């Protein structure tokens, strides 16, 4: 009986660790992506502004 409780607790612990790793990886990926977008904002605005002015003529 105690063997199966150990297996159950180990399975729960392993799934929690894998879930935390996936969550942290996604969080870091979103953070890095947001930082890149924020740093490239003026460049994107310049390109989008030129396209908008050219198409409105």
Features:
95% helix; rod-shaped; 57 residues; 2 helices
Helix and strand topology:
Blueprint lengths: L1 H38 L1 H16 L1
DSSP E strands, number: 0
Specify the number of helices.
2
Distance between the termini: 79 Å
**Coarse structural class:** mainly alpha
List SSEs in N-to-C order: HH
Sum up the overall morphology in one term: rod-shaped
Number of individual domains: 1
Question: Concise description?
Answer:
With 57 residues, this protein is mostly helical.
Overview of the molecule:
This protein is mostly helical and 57 residues long. The chain has one domain (2-50). It is 95% helix and 0% strand. It has two helices and no strands. It has helices spanning 2-39, 41-56. The longest helix is centred in the middle third of the chain and has 38 residues, at 2-39. The chain is rod-shaped and about 75 Å long.
